[in-house]
Structures are given as structure tokens and as C-alpha cells.
Amino acid sequence: MTMYRYLTCLPPFGAVYGEDLKFNSQLANAVAAASKASVPKSLVEAAIARGQGRSATGAQLEPMTLEVLMPPNIALIADIETDNKTRTLHDLKYVVKKAGGVVGGTAFYFSRRGRAVFKPKAGGGGGGPTLSDVLDHFVEHEGAEDVEELPDGGFLAWTQPASVAAITDAVSSKFGLEVLESDIIWAANEDTTVAVDSHRSAESLDALFAAMREFPEVKAVFANIRQGTISDEEWDRIERHIDV
């Protein structure tokens, strides 16, 4: 996750604590990290505004989705927040056409799912919860689907979309876990995923994703792709742009 995307993923904290850094430690930490990473001040301010549900000019943001088909059978969905749907759609359609894709219905390739990523809090010492501990508590909640243990000792939880906020809060509070992500995503249906096998496809996707990410209105991009016969380097260039 880029620093800009991290900042824009703070609306729950902004809604409760606002954009005053004195009263919002989560936001203050993110801004400090952005400054250390030399993120331009204008981008930081725009990201904070978007976390409050408005553009940098103060206009109210509205959600929309963009559904895209890329040859041979690759489906994309982008989650967008914009203060001008007509302008944003026009600009992104141009980007898609330039990359060789078309705007068209792709939602049936995906399912809406809640996703939360947790990690043990720094300085918490050993003896953190096991997967069994988390799972036993997790399944007690309505809308819970599955929990996976991550290589770094954290946990990935899947839920029904309407339950993700409540379950995230319950699990993090119960076990003292830090929440890295808590959102609703478009998860590709397993039987519709497509392997990226050619260098040409990899280049086209990398170019499209990079161009879409230039728009601050684009909050997340999802695709029904998996690594095929392309190299790890080519796959890494693609994967860095997508959210699942």
C-alpha cells in the first residue's frame, strides 16, 4: 500500500476524531510517516480531505465503480470517490481505451467481501493469540466467514460486507491486535480467475494500472488475475497496483 493510499484508508478514524492531528494519533502517525517518505504536502492534504469525504476544494465526494474488460478475458473493478462523476468517467475511459481495454460489465466475476488484517501490537511481548484462539472468538460473530494466519504472525479475516466493521473492532479489542486494514473489497470468484502468461499482457496491465493510480479519485483496483508463466519481476510490477 502506497503512503497516499494508506492516508485515504483512514475515514473511520477521521469520522470519529477529525482531521486535527492533536486529537487523532492515527492520522498524526500517518502524516509523520508521509513526511519522512517525502510525500508532497499537497498530496497529504488531499488524502486527509478524502478521508473526511470531500475533495481538496471542499466539494462532497460520491462513490462510483468502473468496470473494465481487458483481453483476453481479464476483468477489473475500480472503487472511486469523486466530486464530478462525468469528468472522472470520461478521463478513465480514455485511459482504458489507450491500454486496449473497454468499459463494460464485470461485477459477475467478483463477490463483495469484508476483509480485515491484524498484527500484534509492537512491544506487546510474546504469548500473542494463536489462530485457534482468534478463530474460536471470530466464529461467535454474525457474518464471520474465515480467518487465516499470515507469515508475519498476523491474521487475515474474511467476513460478510455488513459485518466487517463490528468484527474488526471485536477481534482487535479482544486480543489487543493492531488493525492494518479493514475494508470491503471485490474478491474475484475462483472459477473466473485468469492466468497472466504473456509479456504483452503483463505490459498492458502494468501500464493501465499505473495510469489509473495517477488519479486520486481511484481508491482501489481489483482484478481476476493470477500469475501464470510471466516472471516474478513482471508479476511484482502488476501486483503492486492491485488490492487483491
From TrEMBL:
GO cellular-component term (any): mitochondrion
Membership in a protein family: Belongs to the TACO1 family.
Domain (TACO1/YebC-like second and third) ranges: 62-225
Protein name, per record: TACO1/YebC-like second and third domain-containing protein
PANTHER family in the record: TRANSLATIONAL ACTIVATOR OF CYTOCHROME C OXIDASE 1 (PTHR12532:SF0)
Species of origin: Purpureocillium takamizusanense
